[in-house]
Amino acid sequence: MSPKRGSAPSEYLDVLIIGAGISGIGAAWYLQKEHPSKSYAILEARGATGGTWDLFRYPGIRSDSDLHTFGYAFKPWDKDQAIASADSILAYLRETASESGIDRKVRLHHKVLGAAWSSEDARWLVDVERADTGERLELKCRWLFCASGYYRYDEGFTPRFEGTGQFKGRIVHPQHWPEDLDYQGKRVVVIGSGATAVTLVPALARAAGHVTMLQRTPTYILPVPTEDRIANLLRKLLPRKWAYALTRRKNIAVQRAFWRFCRRFPRLARRLIRYANVKQLPKGYPVDEHFSPPYEPWDQRLCMVPDADLFKAISRGSASVVTDHIQTFTERGLALASGRELEADIVVTATGLNLLPLGGMSLTVDGAPVHLADKVAFKGMMLDGVPNLALAVGYTNSSWTLKIGLLCEHFCRLLSYMDANGHSICRPERRESDMPTRPLLDFGAGYVKRSISELPRQGMQAPWLMSMDYYSDVKLLKEDSVEDPNLRFSSHVRDVVASEPKVAVAV
User: Fold this and answer.
1) Where are the membrane-spanning stretches (predicted)?
2) Is 273 helix (H, G, I), strand (E, B) or coil?
3) Which of 51-60, 211-220, 452-461 has the lowest mean pLDDT?
4) CATH domain 158-351 topology
5) Each residue of 242-276: pLDDT tens digit?
6) Which of the residues 81, 118, 139, 205 could staple to 313 if both were Cys, CB 3.0 to 4.6 A apart?
């Protein structure tokens, strides 16, 4: 049965935000603060706001960045726990949306299927499906702001394993955690060694009979305190906003310094991380077998474990780590390449994500399809040759939201510039068609490598560089002019090169 097409005329909005997670709510806050007269809506394909923090329901889910930097710059995080649980983060996001009136702009069960740009009309025609009714709607907007993240919400990644059909136990993926899953006293094997696995293992170990983290390759794992004592002290001594601002500045500096240290002195960083692991694990534990990756620190994202909970579970004997390759599932568990068999009642495949750029929607510009793999990101927030489209992609080496906040501020400055100069169209254009490029996410994670050919690319230098440095982005996105030789502004009836603005305006 084909979807029903709505008969009502297309609604027009100045900005259409796609996704009601941490990025979409943040974008809406900045937009209505800086441009209160502009109309906007947030379309959310799922039935609830919160994005990642509403989607994932597996035990122990938490942030892997401190909330003083993962939270919004405009809304202080005032809980004692700097590394927070999903329910705390979700409450924070929904409180932000509620107290700002953003929640009234959210339209749930609205999935964007595609968008077509018309230069003649200077607007996007957006094809939307109501997931709850099957109705098809059309919306028109001047700008699209894609805040849907980069991974697929309805499907996690599970590699093909031999023999799964003969396994007598239960196989689950963390992205689709069953509410009825009873692991009390059970033998659980968690396949994987990333952030999800190191979160699940200690959480499951509190009730399971035993939990084994089965990994093919070790990951760098670093214990961090759940509470930020300096932040909590500052909150007692200073006004709330001052304390938050100082804590945020401190933590940004610490994150950046640690990342730069790891990249500049990888051998020393490896030794320091190993030392931190040895301190937390039982004497004689084979640290180099299970916690010494073959790559350098930050080639992939480091996993943070609050209060060393993973190491404590191992020390108690309620959890263990096995580094090996899976040959096949058996009736009782998993047969490994070493000849060992791991018996299990439940196997959790914490094996990663599937990427889905732009939420899977298709794009056309004046009738021509947009092939994302052929595009290059401009300032990490637009695509060359695609007008009036902004993207929200955060940092992979520190808190995601740090970058999102800067992108949203720059987006609002861009709108101010266009309003002041009478422009309705903004389009990045490469000055050199054969400009050298590299992958958009210069990151060694498996989920990135699997989808690298489907993603846009980045250049070798600004403004085509996908910067992962907060201070560089502050200068580029917050302090520098929005004008750029690679950015072309125009209106319905005339073209104006960005370097020759009609009106000088400080934005």
Assistant:
1) 12-31
2) helix
3) 452-461
4) FAD/NAD(P)-binding domain (3.50.50)
5) 999 999 999 999 999 999 999 999 999 999 999 99
6) 205
Q: Among 231, 411, 233, 193, which residue's Cα sits nearest to residue 322?
A: 193
The DSSP bridge pattern shows strands 187-191 and 303-306 to be: unpaired
What's the one-letter identity of residue 210? H
Cβ partners under 8 Å of residue 126, min gap 6: 16, 112, 114, 115, 138, 139, 140, 141, 144
State the average pLDDT for the chain: 91
Indicate whether this model's pTM tops 0.85. Answer: yes
167 close to 342: Cβ distance less than 8 angstroms? no
H or E, element range at 414: helix 400-421
Question: Residue 324 gets which letter from DSSP?
Answer: -
Reported CATH class of domain 4-153+355-497: alpha beta
Tokens of 33: 């603060």
Using CA atoms, how far residue 129 sits from 46, 74, 137, 284, 450, in Å, is 12, 33, 6, 58, 28
Beta strands 437-439 and 457-459 are antiparallel
Report cis status (omega within 30 of 0) of the bond before 463: yes
Q: What type of residue is 266? A: P
Q: Where are the domains of the chain?
A: 4-153+355-497, 158-351
CA gap 45, 106 in Å, rounded: 10
Smallest Cα–Cα separation from 348: which of 70, 145, 158, 166? 158
Q: DSSP secondary structure string, 441-473?
A: S----HHHHHHGGGS-EEESSTTSS----HHHH
